[in-house]
Protein 1
Amino acid sequence: MSFAASVLTLYPEMFPGALGLSLAGRALEAGTWSLETVQIRDFACDRHRTVDDTPAGGGAGMVMRADVLAKAIDHASPPGDPRPRLLMSPRGKPLTQARVRELAAGPGAVIVCGRFEGVDQRVIEARRLEEVSVGDFILSGGEPAALVLLDAVVRLLPGVMGNAVSGEEESFENGLLEHPHYTRPQEFEGREIPDVLISGNHKKIAAWRRAEAQKLTQERRPDLLGAAPQPLVK
């Protein structure tokens, strides 16, 4: 069974976007995964197709209506649909590689792209939306975040990457950032490939890569070191 993604959005023309190219695009054409877009405005209750209203209690901006969004969710994810319902939101739990792997191992996802100041809390609770964040910054809407999430998931689906092992040594897979990479030429502007990488000693190469990964993580993301599952190189 392929991974089935349903994206609820006010801008369906933003999809598949970059997901229609390269690995994800070839996998989409091959049926490894599928993408459905649902126009939230189609479920509006008035002739103006209104999907938002002023925030209760006052304040700037507009809020997505619970009733309209609930209808769209119920259309995309009827009773019995096993797929998780995700809401792309800056206040959500940070998206991690572990969560990406969980999603890739599942049947798919229903992804709600928020807009305006946010979404009525009642529909979040009533439809059990899992709020997910792709970083500590604000976007114009949830669509770019949904593209990021789907790209991360699709590349892990069976057969998408040419070499499945390549996904096992990347940043975050082992609790550390990825080690530096080198390739030809042997010398570039006075800089040479580290001798250990051309030594042929796979044990020493593995140790070097682990040490470099630890050093990079210590410098750039020390918060990750506590999550590293393997003993740190000293």
Protein 2
Amino acid sequence: MNIAEKPIAAIIGRRISTGDGIHLIANGYKKGVRLDTHMHREAQLVYAAKGTMQVTTPKGRWLVPPDRAVWVPALSEHAIDVLADIEMRTLYFELDWLQREARSHSLDAEFVVRVSPLLHQTILALFDDRGDRERTDLLLRLAMMELDQAEDSTTFIPLPREPRCRRAADIVLTDPTGDHEIETLAREVGTSVRTLSRLFSAETQLSFKSWCQRARIAAAIEKLSTDAGVSVKQLASDLGYASVPAFSHAFRQVTGKTPTEFAGKE
């Protein structure tokens, strides 16, 4: 399948002029909008200053609540699903600029970053359109410095490519709260339990059980990010956990925080 390249000039939104090499575009999207699979000639940092989105690439799926942003390299396929109304702020970097501003860690693979208060304010400041070239250059360099130490994988679900394993993964992702037994999934996709278990480990670097837990916790993060009124007790029940402590333990294993801490309610 050919993936369309989407030129910067075709993107609708509020544009901020920065000079050569960088393009800043602000957009608002409503819940339910899907930006189908596409790519850009430029690399980009995509940040939802408000709201929650999901970014899918051949490598995997990232849930991106407001305290995360996603780095997408140039010519990388990606699709974006809007899970809650978002105010998107995107920084597009031409390759020549990136080569001049090269940092110690690689920017040639997609990843999610935890947005620190400093990075948050830096991105917002870039969009206040003061027209001060020197200030903008400093803010862009500061943003790139923050990327050096902000990578975070807690909201990432790796997606297998082998057809049988991918079908099994899609079944789980369709209903991550369900009680999915590997024996049942193996029958459904036409393989053995041993083969499916081996494929999950080889293709996702996670055991089947750990992968399913990651998918379930991602569903919990999505709920926490899009429903401010949800209680941890109700969420634990909806996700099939026997108790709140069991849910909190599983949540902490993946994210390093309890659900309450992650939601910012403590």
Protein 3
Amino acid sequence: MLIEILAAAGGEAAPQNQFGFMEAMEQGGVIAWSIFGTLVIMSVGSFYILITKLLEQNKIFRQYKAVRSSFWRANTLSEGATKLEKNSAWRQLVDDALAAEAQHNKMTDNLEAHDWMHGSLARSEASINARLASGLPFLASVGATAPFIGLLGTVIGIYRALINIGLAGSASIDKVAGPVGEALIMTAIGLLVAVPAVLAYNWLQSRNRRIGELLSGFSTDILANITSRGAVKPTVITKTSTQQAATAAKTAPATASKA
């Protein structure tokens, strides 16, 4: 109380230190705002890629159900292609296979014709997989570099804080804790940007691998169907066939016990 009275009597106000994110950014100037803006752009770009790729993958999985339920019920590949959505990955494989079939008759060697059709389907798969993988390198780059960008902001902030402390001639805890704590905020922001990007990259990659497996199996079925002139087709799984299989599995033990 005596100190406050003496300070008021002397007309001197007690010094007040203002700490916070905005204060740190204002003191950091152009460098701090540039680093923060870079991290914001990286975060927005990561979530944009995550959402768009997730929608694209869900669409491919949804279209695959139509392939399994209706495509192989058609008499020919051309007829089955009309049941698939245009500009879809599955329609692209069928169209490329039909185009390769139209060209393979020009080859006199049967082995070369088979290799030609197999190579055409492989190229089609590769183009689809490349399209699915677009944008994922950005997620990998964000996950790898965002912590270091945030650390750069922290280093610059601590350097600035040490200079101010040296100019003030005092290294008390109230002059050290605030500036250093504000500088560490940039590292935290960098981690908040990097962690979601890494998780999104790994998740999308695993889903792309599953799509790649489905595409490879579908192209193999198409190649077998073409080379066998429509005789070889995969088993179409429907709700009716699943129910019939379950009923047969239940009645089999009963029949065996009676025997």
Protein 4
Amino acid sequence: MGDVLAGFHAVWEFESDSVLIRYERGIRTPRLFQALGERRIPLSAVEDVTLTAGRRGTVVLRLVPRAGADPLMEAAAGQLKEGSDPYRLVLSADRETLAEYYADELKGLLTGSGPVDRYLVAVPEAPLHFKAADAKASFDGTSVQFRWSWTGASSAKWKAGDQSFPVAGLSGVEWRSPEVFEGHLRLLPREAAAERPAQPDQDPASVVFGLGYGPVHESLPFAAAVLAAVRTRPSSAVPVPARRDPADIAERIRHLGELHQAGLVTDEEFSSKKAELLAEL
């Protein structure tokens, strides 16, 4: 088609086999859109195209992604607010006829329907990171690292120590929006622990969100990138453990000692965990 359609917060560029969506960076643009920058949506990843009435004299042109085509939408699991849906283009109502034209044109180019068995839409590339309420989370493309915050992490997480999860050992990701109560990011190991804590604040495979910690525009692309890596990476990969910073080890031993003095860690747990930390030097 080769045409361009500009709406509020985004511009759609129509190509023969895809729609390139470029998001604005204005102050009123949802932060998730700004973080995404632009996305190319192959028409093979689209189930349908809809046109509906919007709010305050607008119409909404929307691509309906096929199930399993976009890891971002799979990770979101229907939790995104309407205004943060990256598949919506909001236009003024006086452009409805033009929007109808493009909706019909796009429908005529769709090539498939139903779920797909592989991701067709790309996600932000690693490295990615964000700060949760109890940890700093980072992803380098091969493994996820959780580095616990000494002010926010539970004693259970401090006892377990900082965590590293190779994507080859994961089966999926659970994301609960920070815009709802008890938001969190939980990694799902292929071999689940026999007594895995039900609460994310006690689970070393989870980080919890809070006010200003783990916002949607940081944690959702992170979750989607990990999910995409999990589904596409061979399970035989063996991670190479990285050496730890001695200053970081010393700080963690100090905090472990504080937990011990406060009675939150037993003598046996203190000795065992201290030995583990020293072995990482």
